[in-house]
Amino acid sequence: MTTLPLRNNEGFLEDADSWTPKVAEEIAAEDSIQLNENHWEIIEFLRGFYKQHEMSPPSNRLFVKAVKEAFGDDKGNSIYLMQLFPGTPAKTACRIAGLPRPTNCL
């Protein structure tokens, strides 16, 4: 087990640049999530989104919409994303991806 970078009280990294795939695996394990290629596809998409827009998708609805635009209806829906990232998918996925907390997620 590696030492995780500094995180806030909700488990989000203080510095998105301190993220590594190993860090993602450890954060996911805290939520009992075993990352597979479907998770990585969304994580890499989110990191690209963040790099392009300098923000996380601001809400779950916009997260689902962005995934739908990128990957189509099969993956761009709440049920698929909830199966990968239980709870609030945008919040869980952003935390694992090392990104800031989405602004409108509870």
UniProtKB/TrEMBL annotation:
It is an enzyme of class 2 (transferase). It is found in: Cytoplasm. Its main location: cytoplasm. Gene3D superfamilies: 3.30.1420.10, DsrC-like protein, C-terminal domain (1.10.10.370). It comes from the Bacteria. The keyword Repeat does not apply. InterPro entries: DsrC-like_C (IPR042072), DsrC-like_dom_sf (IPR025526), DsrC-like_N (IPR043163), DsrC/TusE (IPR007453). Keywords: Cytoplasm, Transferase. Its EC number is 2.8.1.-. Part of a sulfur-relay system. Belongs to the dsrC/tusE family. PANTHER family: SULFURTRANSFERASE TUSE. This is Sulfurtransferase.
